[in-house]
């Protein structure tokens, strides 16, 4: 079960993330379906993470933990995320009548982000979505119907040869025949 796209950093981080497009993402379950975390914690020893020119488009699916936002964009007020585009997003829940989108100091277009801003500008918004989106999502053969158990041993399934529904496999990949053993 895919979880989400998350970029957590600590206050000790330095660097940048830019010019990235995520197009056509399908998710079945998970806690944070679309999550960008430009800071994590309060250590503050680094120069910060510069985040700009990111596009999230054609994201479809549902979360399995409706206590968390389906979309969460969290950026530091000192290192604001800019030019963030969220377009054609249909994310819902399998356990409720609404979902939330949370945005903090992320500037751009689509979803709920503010259009203009720069380092030092601060804002936070939370939007509750009550209209169920209309979408159809594919599944892969042998998709997990429940997560792997966390308190007991289990056998890892054969790695699929293709992650694209309906595509012809190119070759046979890794196959585990026993827990932790290679075939």
UniProtKB/TrEMBL annotation:
Q: Which domain of life is it from?
A: Eukaryota
Q: What is this protein called?
A: Pectin lyase-like protein
- According to its UniProt entry, this protein's organism is Aspergillus brunneoviolaceus CBS 621.78
Q: What is the lineage of its organism?
A: Eukaryota, Fungi, Dikarya, Ascomycota, Pezizomycotina
């Amino acid at each position: 079960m895919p979880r989400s796209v998350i970029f957590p950093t600590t206050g000790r981080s330095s660097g940048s993330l830019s010019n990235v497009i995520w197009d056509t993402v399908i998710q079945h379950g998970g806690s944070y379906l679309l999550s960008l975390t430009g800071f994590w914690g309060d250590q503050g020893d680094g120069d910060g993470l510069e985040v700009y020119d990111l596009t999230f488009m054609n994201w479809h699916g549902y979360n399995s933990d409706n206590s968390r936002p389906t979309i969460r964009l969290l950026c530091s007020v000192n290192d604001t995320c800019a030019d963030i585009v969220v377009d054609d997003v249909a994310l819902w829940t399998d356990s409720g009548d609404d979902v939330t989108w949370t945005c903090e100091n992320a500037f751009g277009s689509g979803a709920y982000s503010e259009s203009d801003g720069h380092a030092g500008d601060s804002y936070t918004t939370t939007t509750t979505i009550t209209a169920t989106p209309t979408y159809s999502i594919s599944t892969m053969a042998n998709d997990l119907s429940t997560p792997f158990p966390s308190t007991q041993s289990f056998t890892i399934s054969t790695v699929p040869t293709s992650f694209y529904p309906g595509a012809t496999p190119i070759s046979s990949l890794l196959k585990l025949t026993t827990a932790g053993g290679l075939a």
